[in-house]
Amino acid sequence: MTLSPGRWYVTRPTDPRVYTLEPTLVSVRSDSPHPPRYVHVQTFGCQMNVYDTDRIFQALEPLNYTPTDDPARANLILLNTCSVRDKAEQKMMSQLGRLAPLKEYNDDLVLGVAGCVAQQEGERLLKKVPYLDLVFGPDHVQELPKLLERVRSDEGRVSETTFFKRKNYEFIEAKPRESAEKVSEFVTIMKGCDKVCTFCIVPFTRGREVSKSRELIVKEVENLVEVGVKEVTLLGQNVNSYGKDKDREVHFDELLRAVDEIEGLERVRFTTSHPMDCTDGLIDCFGELRTLAEYFHLPVQSGSDRVLEAMRRHYTIDHYRDRVARLRERAPDIALSTDIIVGFPGETEEEFEETMALLREVRYDSIFAFKYSPRPGTKASEMEDTVPEPDKTRRLDQVLKLQNQITAEKMQTYTGKTLEVLVEGPSRSVDKGQSHEWQMMGRTRTNVIVNFRVPMGDFWNNRLKGELIKVRIDEAKAHSLYGQVVA
Ligand code: 5AD
Ligand code: SF4
Q1: Domain that residue 465 falls in
Q2: 305-350 pLDDT tens trace
Q3: Domain holding 365: CATH number?
Q4: pLDDT tens figures, 79-94
Q5: pTM
Q6: Ligand 2 pocket check: which of 119, 120, 195 to mutate, most ligand atoms within 8 Å of Cβ?
Q7: β-strands 76-81, 110-114 pairing
Q8: In a domain, 333, yes or no
Q9: Which of 1, 11, 4 is nearest to 38 (CA)?
Q10: Taking residues 49-75, what's their average pLDDT?
Q11: Do 26 and 148 belong to one domain?
Q12: Atom in ligand 1 nearest the alpha carbon of residue 371
């Protein structure tokens, strides 16, 4: 079928044997010299990849590509991958296998891998997966149109994983996708990581730190606010070292102050932080800046000083304790979360118990816990992986069980309180027999999900989305709260 500009079409998946999806209405841009095409991206891993996926869409827009959820309709399928742990990588490989039949069916289809696995594997991935057309690392998102041209030329299969030199790396202004109608968005403020944590592959896949200019960050946040965004999360592997590569012309806390002045912006969050670079200047922003929400993700990784040294984290548990104490002094209600690795090479039972003790002491609101997994090229992968798999599994279970109990106790403390909630939208409809209601969801400043009900209808949806409202909490479940609107 030939599509003509300016008309609406009902399209069907090209291969119903592989994917059975509902037909969807699509519009065809009338002002593009390029034929309409579709791109399907599956995103794995961290928020940085979510942000990069949006940049992929942005880079392809001039070529008249529209994002689609339906891989069978796509002319281009990309997996934006994560290699931080082995499991994420395996997940991506099995997904590639599932997509392979589409290549047989559609000669025009380009299948590519982006993100951290692409950076790590490069040419090797092309050799391993014969039906793959394109592999490119995170530094090359902006060049995607050129890479596609190369794939479609005689050159054929392409792998592009060179890193730009720090001084040559340029950030392109991120354009908001108005159609996304998001209340909360990510803004990358830097790329790469200059730390050398021995377990971590990120410095190899994302390269050296480069900070985006303060002016560009402020501009990007302003652009988002203009299309209705009320909350931004500033992203980087270690945002606390923002500006270090530019001789600290602007410190991270100064950047927070600049963003805080943006009119119409309600909340700011940031991730991730390194305890070593978590300065008093940054901590003092809590309770002082209007927009800075009381939530801090501060990965500790282990409760043992010996393990921290082997991980080359460059801090002790006493230093970490001091940071937490100061944060809680500044913002008593601040929610804290962390990352934990169990079963790092050489971790003894006693050292693991130190991690358990730290969890009992700090009482985080939530944690992300992982079994250590050796990553290629890292220092730790040269160490003997001494903790047997069943012990890693047991330690992970113990950590999660303890934390579930702490989280449940913390969630209970919200009941009866009236909290400020930023409404994100309806989460489901509720059939009440005679009438229907929307269950709406939003988040507290401490990043906890709150559900509440309103009468069904566009009126409530449009009126409340993006609003700050007060909700009285009646019930706390494992990961979310339920309440009633009071104002
Ligand atoms: N094994 C297990 N967990 C890891 N992380 C990073 N590398 C590894 C690894 N090799 C975890 C850390 C980090 C989070 C993003 O992922 O806890 O903070
Ligand atoms: Fe990895 Fe450490 Fe950098 Fe975090 S700070 S991205 S754990 S090297």
Answers
A1: 418-485
A2: 999 999 999 999 999 999 999 999 999 999 999 999 999 999 999 9
A3: 3.30.750.200
A4: 999 999 888 778 888 9
A5: 0.90
A6: 195
A7: parallel
A8: yes
A9: 11
A10: 94
A11: yes
A12: 2
